[in-house]
## 1
Amino acid sequence: MVVFNFENAEVTHNNLGGVGPGDGDEYVMYKGIGSFNGDPIDMKVVTHNSDYQAGKPYKTGLEGKSGQINVKIGSVANMTFTFLDDVTQQPVTLPAFYITIFDLDWGPAGNEVVEVKGYESLALPLDPEFDYEEANGSIKATSTMQGNACDNPTDPEDLGIVTCKGLTVDTKRRSFSVLFRHQSSFDITFSAPAKKDEVKPDSGRNLQFAGTSALSDQCS
């Protein structure tokens, strides 16, 4: 099992879909997220849809112990995450790894929809606070509860209860974890459908993701 550590990773290139905040080639590089057979590995993220937009591009990158991708309200990011050898930059097939999606909620301007495909098993919380459709190694999860930035989990291994701005949130109930085996990459689609006709130009939602989490040991 390969364990990722986003807290010790570094974003060395940040221009997903060509929207910045950096420039050059259109991808995000998370350098040093873990190791395999004693060699450090990186994670490269690219989008496949030319209409991807970010409300706040500078929000894409790292957020504490997780990775983060910002999507503008009304936009979608069809992404592939690929593991690379840190020296050769060639794809590396990992025997097994977890990916956890958390902080799945909506804001006044937009909703959140996350689709993940190709996993071996799925771990869901008891009484999840999101709607989902799941079949054949694919899940589509849609937020159903309001959230605030102050209730974002700071540690995927500690998905506890947070109270702020008048809301009490069980962060585990807004998360799910998937187990992949024998893959060098995986795909996630993250969209932020608008909840009203007019929104601020920089309005967006954030996809927060990590590796292992408080849910991971439920994957079989």
Note: The two ends are 13 Å apart (CA to CA).
## 2
Amino acid sequence: MSIKNIKIRDICEFFTDGDWIESSDQSATGIRLIQTGNIGNGFYKDKETKAKYISEVTFDRLNCTEVKTGDILISRLPDPIGRACRVPLLTTKSITAVDCSILRLKSLVDANYFVFYTQSSSYQKQIEKYINGATRKRISRGNLAEIEIPLYPLEKQQRITTELTYISDIIGKHKELLDKYDALIKSRFIEMFGDPTTNPMNWDTVNISSLLTVNASNGFFAKRDEYTEDGNVEVLGVVNIVNTMYSKIDLLPKTNASEKDIKKYSVKYGDMLFCRSSLVAEGIGKASIVPENINKTILFECHVIRLRLDLNKCVPEYMQMLSTTSFFRNQVLKHAKTSTMTTIGQDGILKTDVRLPPIEKQKQFLSFIKQIDKSKFAVQKSLEKAETLYKSLMQEYFG
């Protein structure tokens, strides 16, 4: 079937920008102001607790454009630029801010089909051609209007939408279940050990440096052009160690390293890896642990700090969970330094104290984690299959 491409400007019966609303024009109640933060990548994010409003008088004075249920909103700001959502059933009169474009589609395009297309690589590649701005990147409404979408017959669009909605719902439910398992682990941690800030069970408090078998160290450095698919080692970076219990060791970049570097920077179970530089303060000092039974040579890179834990004194999984608590995070952030990026040195990590229950108690917690991990593994495998199918369908329909 030959698919015709059509520009956004030709599929809209109404296409305009949101309104320029100064902070002085805002009020505590009145007409809801939808902002770019409400636009998810394919879904609407309602943020009632942070909602902003304008009065009816301001609405009339500025000649604002009212957003309607079913309209498409496209963010002209990151992240990513061009993300879109369909406006849900509105319970209050609403407008949107200047960096959101409002699309009201003609009947030849299904709104949900359009939103799915905005999540495709084909759409993003077109967006990237038009992005401008040095410090604050954006796309203009004029350029957004030039983006093309594949125009299947309406019935085919609706079949595509039904299929992609079904798969994306499965993906969402799997992710929700994984989140519940993670919440269960956190709940069990508090149940077994109490809040480490108040330490109600009076566990020993020790400096983290007393739990190491070797000195803390920064990682391996290789220039970007030294990475190669036939390298003899794989390299763990910051992106592989934050917001996860176990460091992500699949599909790592490869480079070549000497025997000396391999000996110095190779990771194994018992290694706790900390992020030592981040664009945002929240990312600094976040840690993961290296999983067991690694069957390949993996080094940790220079933006990561390694602590090699003494397995006779502590359980890595216990230490990683402790590192996510406010008790530990507050200590880390106190020693962080901020200029262009937020950083922390080895000394900052080594100044932290930890609560240390008996090793047998920690091992009981590990047994619980392993039980949960069996269930998570099955869900993760199903999730990966669903995500693979989703990507395949997106490629088939949108290129």
Note: The chain has a mean pLDDT of 94.
